[in-house]
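The pair is listed for reference:
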Amino acid sequence: MSILFALVILLSFFIGAIPFGLIIGRLAAGVDITRRGSGNIGAANVAREIGVRWGFITLMFDILKGFLPLMIGMKIPVQYHNIFLIILSLAILLGHMYSPFLRFRGGKGVSTGFGIFLALSPISAIISFCIFLLTVYLFNYISLGSISGACFMPVILALMDKPAHYIVIALLTALLILVAHSENINRIITGSERRWRN
């Protein structure tokens, strides 16, 4: 493993770890978003608690956390480039979901994961986003939409005949997002999950 390989992975982890939802909550409304609503730093909780505009801004920053490092990483000439991209994607996601700036807590990886796939395969990412929107429209759960979009991504990539390492990244991303949403899944089953539109 080259020094460049390791440095890019480490830097990407810390970029992923930047808690934009927390920062925006404090700057825009003077609140600690981790103590409001679901306690999550993601765009959905920010939108619910301090306004859709701020949720959208959080969403954009969280997407960029995934998009920019991947776009740069795809152009870096390192050995074992496919493995490098898999590890790079995981580093970004794990930084976001287990941020050292939040005592190793964080978001659920959806927006940042979307940013990763927007860099890898924009059309696949847009199809996945449409599945997310359709699921939210039909069932009124943001969490279920997020899970659906993530779980369909490996299938979309396979059907579009994308490289195997893209599919590996999608499978690992879906697994991480499923784990992060385990409590949401339980609440959906019991009927206690918060709906997007009341």
Observations:
- Residues 3-190 form one domain.
- The chain has a mean pLDDT of 94.
- The chain has ten helices and no strands.
- The radius of gyration is 16 Å.
